[in-house]
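Q: Here's a chain of 196 amino acids. Please give me its 3D structure as tokens.
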Amino acid sequence: MPTTCSRPCRAAIWLPAIMGVMGGLLAGCAPGSDLKPVPPYDPGQYRLGVDDEIRVMTYEQDQFTSDFRVDSSGKVAFPVAGSLQAAGLTTVEFATEVSKALQAARMLRDPSVSVEVSAYRLVSVLGEVAKPGQYPYQPAMTLLTAVAAGGGFTYRALETRAYVVRQEGGHAVVGYLKPHDYVKPGDVIKIYERHF
């Protein structure tokens, strides 16, 4: 005949506490657990950078409408107007700079200029993805869509966070991204291998 105890069994008392401690220890050993999140990125505030390809359109002035690439110094060599700083500016801000430069060069009195990005700079996706490599940034790209561009996670991938190197204010910042966090153009992302 089975016996019952009026007091709770010691295993029933200690097991949840032991499991909590073990879970905390394992979480502390997880890749990237020592990193802080990188500063958030707002894709609505896209700023031009090195290797972006842009199209400058000047209303009713086809000779001043063309495609350009932002060079390694962050500038665009614009005909007649010279070398103009583009990196760090929004498309609207750069259109204003082009307009001012055309006026200063006395080419047009009141130019109407617009700028759009025709090809974004690259995002690097490394580590535990099917096809590591560099992929063009897409507006509102998240960590998950960057991984999808790289062919998806491998079966060994840690899917809850990724290591990232991001350019902020002229210097590199190291931290982590979660799956639904926005990727910034130029980010270098490494998908960790899980330990268990």
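Q: Can you summarize the key feature?
A: Confidence is low (pLDDT under 50) at residues 21-27.
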